[in-house]
Amino acid sequence: MMVKFHRLLCAGTLCIGMTASLSALAADDNSHLTGDWNGTRRALSDAGVDLSLGYLSESATNISGGDHNEGAYADEFELGLGLDLDKLLSWSGASVRVLVTDRNGNNLNDKADLGALMQFQEIYGRGSVTRWTMLYLEQKLLDDKLDIKLGRLPMNIDIANYGCDFINLSFCGGLPGYLVSTWYNYPVSQWGGRIRYDFDSGWYAMVSATQVNPRYLENGQSMNVGSPSGTIGGLYVAEFGSSMRLGASNLPGSFFVGLWRDTADSSDQLLDVNGEPQALTGEPAKQHDGNSGLYFNIQQQITSVDGSPKRGMSLFVNFVQADSATSYVDQLLSIGMRYAGPFAARPDDALGFVVGRTRVSSSAAAAQHIAGGEAPGSEYPSELYYRAKVLPWLNLEPSLQYIYKPGGVSSNDNLLIGTLRVAVDF
Fold first, then answer.
1. At the top level of its lineage, which domain of life is listed (predicted)?
2. N or C: which end of the chain has fewer CB within 10 A?
């Protein structure tokens, strides 16, 4: 049972062993595996052209729980291009960003039939396919206080950006997108725009309007830069937030809260078109004229080392509430901590721990109960990780995830999952 987890750790050890021969390539620029290309990378950046290539993999195995033990591997390559139009065309405050992603692999939840509500490998999802993930123009005005983006955008590039230190999907990325079927997170993008204004007080206001078209999920549309037919509505979000400082210690923190409205029709989880339980009648589901919800995040650093905020502990709380009538999972809540630079000899490493609750909506639970199944409640995930910056361009992050009541069903075995994330900046 432990053999597969040992293989994951061996994979990380292999990456470390490779660094001796690869580091020579980066002698002139240790932030990238391939270095500065004999000055070409720096010259391109000075001219306004930034190229990037990244690799991220996440391997997982169920150490305990489930009917059988399995291992799963998923990865992603990112190829990015940034154009500074001020340098290239003397277009003040303007830039273009292009990003193509390629995902591959499988996920442990399905492979071992573990029944969890959220994936253990956040990098898995939306098909093994190459996609246009970003293609937008950004314009900054009014001394950079006003920031406008227009083009093909993933929802969580700016909106509801919770970060992704953890590997379990309950704690990573644009959390509302895991509850709302028409909220398309990275790597899927759609046409839209967002406007942000930063006030002198430290607060900001941000609004976005995005096309809702399920055809963007199709592998056949993954490299379509245009807009396929099939738009069913729009997704509109307003977000407000602020940077904060904690008392006399002046330690950094932040807060944001957002509201969304989706105009696409949504199916009721319980009722049919006549207002009766669909599980009994078999009639089509009741349709709702869109859905709404809210989310917030607060995080605050509470300790420092030798007066420097670069090392120390931060606490955070994440919350998402979706429409209970139309969402299978209607609420996410998590509370956790991160510690930057846990050891003096490892100032660039990080340690994190989080516990959460992933709740099945009352409508979905009632529907399953009426259908004769066990009514699900809440799933309780937790995760402990250690991220080691082995080299400036290589991060290794082993983690342990424990899932209590996977699927929100008490008869399911609790799960202990071992994961390993490998991130390389070429």
1. Bacteria
2. N
Which of 72, 71, 100, 96 lies closest to 86, judged by CA? 96
Answer whether the bond into residue 187 is a cis peptide, omega within 30°: yes
Q: How far apart are CA 188 and CA 103, in angstroms?
A: 11
For 252, the 3-state DSSP assignment is strand
Q: How far is CA 235 from CA 32, 186, 211, 261, in A?
A: 37, 15, 6, 6
Report residue 246's pLDDT band, with 50, 70 and 90 as the boundaries. confident
Q: How far apart are CA 118 and CA 120, in angstroms?
A: 7
Distances from the Cα of 261 to the Cα of 76, 159, 256, 286, 289, angstroms: 31, 13, 17, 19, 10
Q: Give CA 207 to chain center in angstroms.
A: 20
Give, for 363, the enclosing helix (H) or strand (E): helix 362-370
pLDDT at 222: 92
Residue among 41, 130, 8 at smallest CA distance from 398: 8
> Strand 285-288 to strand 203-212: parallel, antiparallel, or no bridges (unpaired)?
unpaired
Q: Please state, in angstroms and rounded to a whole number, the distance separating the CA atoms of residues 314 and 323.
A: 31
Taking the C-alpha atoms of residue 338 and residue 309, their distance in angstroms, rounded to an integer, is 13
Question: Residue 268 corresponds to which tokens in the numbers above?
Answer: 């009721």
Q: CA 159 → CA 138, 194, 268, distances in Å? A: 15, 9, 26
Q: Which residue(s) pair with 299 in the sheet?
A: 254, 316
The full length of the chain comes to 426
Per DSSP, the residues of 61-109 read: EEEE-SSS--EEEEEEEEEEEEEEHHHHH--TTEEEEEEEEEEEE--HH
pTM of the model: 0.89
Q: Residue 412 and residue 402: Cα distance in Å, rounded?
A: 13
> DSSP state, 43?
H
Q: What is the CA radius of gyration of the chain?
A: 23
Burial class (CB in 10 A: 0-12, 13-18, 19+), 200: exposed
Is residue 15's pLDDT more than 80?
A: no
Question: How many other C-beta atoms are found inside a 10 Å radius of the C-beta of residue 68?
Answer: 9
Task: Write out the CATH class of domain 3-425.
Answer: mainly beta
Residue found by looking up tokens 């930034």 in the block: 50
Mean pLDDT score of the chain: 91
pLDDT in tens, 117-172: 999 999 999 989 999 999 999 999 999 999 999 999 999 899 999 999 999 999 99
